Amino acid sequence: MDHPSHRVKRAMEINGAMYGWGRDGVGVFSDSDRHCLVMERSGLSGMTLRRFISLYAAELEEYYGEYFGEGHQHVESLYGDTLVFVLVDLLSGDSVPKKIRKKIRCSGKWRRNKLRHKWSYKNPLNRIHGFLIMKDVTNTGHPQKTYSINTIASSFFSEKKGVGYDLMNLAKIFAKESGAEDIVLQVSNGYSSMGFPDDSEDEYSSEEESDEDYSEEGETEDEEEECEDYVDLDTMKGMWYPDEDSLDILTNELWKKCVRKDRRGIPHYNLASEYINYGLSSYFDTEMNSEDENLWKGTGKNSVKDVDEPGDTEYGGFWYQKGRRSQKRLMGFYEMHGYREDPDVHINWCCFSDIPYPTMRLKLV
């Protein structure tokens, strides 16, 4: 378990970057009473996911019939190493595109309800037109402050332009305000993880496997008392934590926004819903990479035995190359935002698993 002082230090750092607390009121979201940042291209408002839920808790509870923490505080008090940002349309009224309204008028009841659920603001989660999951991956192997982009997605059910651009820009603005020197990311694809045995590390990355080993029955009395202390600390801060049902709703709705269709109109997803679920759980539970006040030890280095002839499952090898070719267009999008491929991030920075996804880096200083 991590110590309260470790969490408090983290909270002060993040609140300073976001809201300007302790920084003369200057932060990413300090220019608005709603604690948001109006984005340049889309005109949407960037904010944390908790902030969005606090604004629309009553509507969420009415629509889904689950508890979303109505009456809880509007600004977060505690943070872990994972953060979730969303781009939200705060304008009053509905925003169903004209072509969808036409489909609704011409459809039967079941089809109408399905279309409204995906597009209408009567479902408050449709106000989210894009989301971003970031993680602090600073570690002893690479102690320079670094954030990774774990997930970035614009909604398929949106006609807003520039959402992807604004999400990338929001990540950059926040990381700079936090004092990070770099932002890194892995280019996900369906090939790079092939060649690994089924029981080896999967797409969730190595540090996440410890979550599966957790067992309530295995806790000692001291650990149980310590857990109670943390619950009391969080409760005093007035923070809402989703139960299983509300977390499933958030996971499924955000995952469905990631759907894309190929040339034949067949829908497909580039990532599993479990991946989003893990990111949301880490965010809401304010999980930390390190279990104490020491810097996270990282994942360990990933070796490449021969850089001129890497193995099939090594960086630069057969499955890496196949995955890289499949995402050439996506890598071009990242390059447009200043990112460059850097194998050293995968090999020596101790922040990613051994699966050889192409790694890219944006230098901030």
Task: Give me a quick take on this structure.
With 365 residues, this protein is of the alpha+beta class. It has helices at 4-19, 49-64, 98-105, 109-119, 163-177, 221-236, 244-257, 273-284, 318-326, 328-336, 343-348; strands at residues 37-38, 45-48, 82-88, 128-136, 146-154, 182-186, 260-261, 267-268, 340-341, 359-363.
Which helices and strands, and how do they pair?
Layout: H1 4-19, E1 37-38, E2 45-48, H2 49-64, E3 82-88, H3 98-105, H4 109-119, E4 128-136, E5 146-154, H5 163-177, E6 182-186, H6 221-236, H7 244-257, E7 260-261, E8 267-268, H8 273-284, H9 318-326, H10 328-336, E9 340-341, H11 343-348, E10 359-363
Parallel strand pairs: 5-6
Antiparallel strand pairs: 1-2, 2-3, 3-4, 4-5, 6-10, 7-8, 9-10
Helix pairs in contact: 3-4, 7-8
